[in-house]
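Table S2 (continued). Query chain:
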Amino acid sequence: MFKRILLASDGSKHALRAAETAMGLAKYTEDASIEIVYVIDSQTSKF
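Corresponding output:
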């Protein structure tokens, strides 16, 4: 189905749900890979 999946994550509950969906999609293709991009909003970040 999908060979490469790009997953944007920010650590939120929505991102975790998206990760579960991405893993579910990856199960349908033997050599599928998931690339994760961690996103931080510098305006609201406490760093």
